[in-house]
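ok here's 2-isopropylmalate synthase, seq below lol
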Amino acid sequence: MNKKIIIFDTTLRDGEQALQASLNVHAKIQIALALERMGIDIIEVGFPISSPGDFKSIQSISKIIKNSKICSLARCLPKDIDVAAESMQSAKNFRIHLFLGTSNLHISSKLKKNFDEIKDMAVSSIKRAKKYTDDIEFSCEDAGRTSLDNLCNIVETVISAGVNTINIPDTVGYTTPTQFKNIIDTLFHRVTNIDQAIVSVHCHNDLGMAVGNSISAVEAGARQIEGTINGLGERAGNTALEEVVMALNIHKKSLHTFTNINFKEIYKTSKIVSQFCNMPVSSNKAIVGKNAFSHSSGIHQDGVLKNRENYEIIDPISIGLNNCKLNLTSRSGRAAVEYRMKEMGYHHYDYNLNELYIDFLKLADKKGRVFDYDLEALAFFKKQQNIEEYFKLEYFDVQSKLSGLSVASIVLMCGSKINIQKSTTNNGPVDAIYQALSKATLYPILLKKFNLVANSEGEDALGKVDIVVQYKSRNFHGVGLATDIIEASAQAMVNAFNYIWKSTQVDKELEKLHK
Ligand code: KIV
Ligand code: ZN
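and the structure came out like this:
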């Protein structure tokens, strides 16, 4: 009989950990909804003890997600477990995911304990978590470098203590597929109670083997795979879920497996994650890269035209990639825009049609023709920027001279007050505008990242600027989108200032509460 492989997504936890600036609640909800539509079985939504923001996001997601199971991460510490359970109170059912280092390296140099103490911590934490839920996952952190004797020992111990999912992470992406398969095989042969838990794997990609290792583990009997969309995650990332689920699907006959994944949602989910996380997908990325289904050489093009399968193992339509070309210009109506969005796989609840249409018309007037990637950028840009606009850029003017001098003037609405500022620098027009904006807001910030990408090709491409600024040792993210790159840069800074303003309001509320 074919076995179901449970797909566990950790984009919002392990993936988010690797971003330069945290995702806001709104972005996390949109990603969680996309994952649910994709048929993900378990969504790890965060590590609630790590920050009040993460805790709040988990609370909100727990109220909204109905079909996927919600899971939160906790160290083997009483407070972590209590907070994890509290954050998911509104969920219909939830999982607590405990983790603890089991390799000699982690035990001695990170945790400063011995193996017996680790086992005691694990058992008492499982007991505590069991007060809140029957669904407990335990991860042996750095299992890839844990001795097989110790790994079998702790796995048997935690299963006896009552965990129902035992996760084997290759935390530093150290193993090869043969070595990792051997670890899973050994657990099945030596752990006497292994049949009482689902064996899960969580592979990092430091040697580029995360997907291969996960598939090898399935061959050895693993029933849950953990990973992230687009392979986001610490360092070189995690197992890319879109790759692993397609590999499972293509080889389902030899692997005797199936998943709950709705393949048609894959491409769209990848786009949503990439847009909200500001993590572009490389063109040659398997399954979701721009070139994954494009054929360049004459021989390949000829072969594909004769029979797609000559050079394609996956039908792009099966993952929701639609190549229909509809010429969208300023003469196109709302219905055409809505139709095209639907063709691309977006539902009316993914974006706001009224706002999109207004932005579409402005862009169509400037560019003439609006392409799919423009529509996607406009639709998700608004959502990314979804924040109360306390600061609004009403006007700007910059002049740059060959001598190196740049002069910027701005008019910024600060709430209902108008603020006019001027700034002169030797560091170019963007810096001149940034200095004028800083004078208006009075926020002393440090620009930590400035990234400009053309969202399409050609001279009229939409420029997308994403920046990270530091204010009082916290990082804030800002995005700006415009055909004029100076305007996009200014809008990105205004967006970041709005997030800073919002956080100062939250801090004030918290201060009041604690008085
Ligand atoms: O990589 C890792 O070991 C983890 C655990 C918390 C599962 O992310
Ligand atoms: Zn990890």
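fwiw The chain has a mean pLDDT of 91. kinda neat tbh
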